[in-house]
Amino acid sequence: MKTFMKRALWTLLLLTVAAAMAVCASAANEIDSGKCGENLTWTLYDDGEMVIDGQWSMSNYSSNNAPWNAYKANIRTLTIKDGVESIGSSAFQDCSLLSTINFGNGLTSIGQSAFRNCDALKGITIPDTVNSIGS
What we know:
Elements: H1 2-26, E1 30-37, E2 40-45, E3 49-54, E4 56-57, E5 77-80, E6 84-87, E7 100-102, E8 109-110, E9 132-133
């Protein structure tokens, strides 16, 4: 009976370790990150999610000078965290695979051409707090 219990405990332990390793392996890894405003940061993960976090406003950009320009083809999901007040002009222009945007609380403006040529983006729900959208 003791041998059976030992084997059962070892099996349970191994299964627990294997499950924990699977969860860790499935977590997204950071590809790159940086600043996108005085108090804002961006982080891109290998699962295609970009997260904008911090407080206040995002910088404005032209069509090819956003700090994540080299990764535009990798961005599939955009998460704007609470506290981000604006999305800069042309910030995500030409992110052709961007299909989902999760807006946080506090967003008040979206700059001109912020999502221009985002062909995979079929529709978004703009929060009620937004009172200004560029052309």
